Amino acid sequence: MATGTRRAQRRTEALSRERIVEAAVELLDAAGESGLTFRVLTERLATGPGAIYWHVANKGELLVAATDAVVADALAAEPAGSPRDEVHAVALGLFSAIDAHPWLAAQLLLQLSRSPGGPVTPRILESLGRRVRALGVPEEHWFTATSVLMHYVLGAAGQNAANSRVAEPDADRAEFLAATAEAWEDLDPEEYETTRLMASQMREHDDRAQFLAGIDLVLAGVAALYPGGRA
Length: 231
Fold this sequence. Notes:
Layout: H1 2-14, H2 17-31, H3 38-45, H4 49-55, H5 59-74, H6 83-100, H7 104-114, H8 120-134, H9 142-167, H10 173-185, H11 193-204, H12 207-225
Helix pairs in contact: 2-5, 5-7, 6-8, 6-9, 6-12, 7-9, 8-9, 9-12, 10-11
Organism: Amycolatopsis dendrobii
Keywords: DNA-binding, Transcription, Transcription regulation
GO biological process, one term: negative regulation of DNA-templated transcription
């Protein structure tokens, strides 16, 4: 009996929580949330379900851990430069992570709305909040400024990733934008005057440049509201 227990312990130690989460991220990237099952996970890890349940209680906990692992990796680098430059670097790290992991945007939305106590939401808030503090925002406004910035980053990055995946099956990004611009230019000129005038700008825009322009609009608002800061 003691020998069997020692063997089980050795298997559990060899199969770490980190390895389970890594395999879960791989499955999520390949097949989405529906493709992540404990049966498929045990096959990939060549183990039994008991070894996985030793580290992770259920699929919900595993999804949280996978989301947190990807976000932590995206925020691992310590950017240097002005507070604005650091905000750009943090935002682009999250932008790239959401673009690379198709399931991440939906999971981030769930974590922010259902489990703001952690671990994912505090990690993002801390990374952006430090930069908001460095901008000179008064303490009583840290939460508002950081929350606005966070929701812009996650919302815009998630929408961009969704747009990219919609375009990929039938056309590359440039073709997709050109077709959309043509559709806008064909709209009724009286009802959609402004949209038609913006069509050429949409056709030529760069996703990352537009994303960073949105960051700067948020920071300009911060600077206007708190003129003593360094935004």
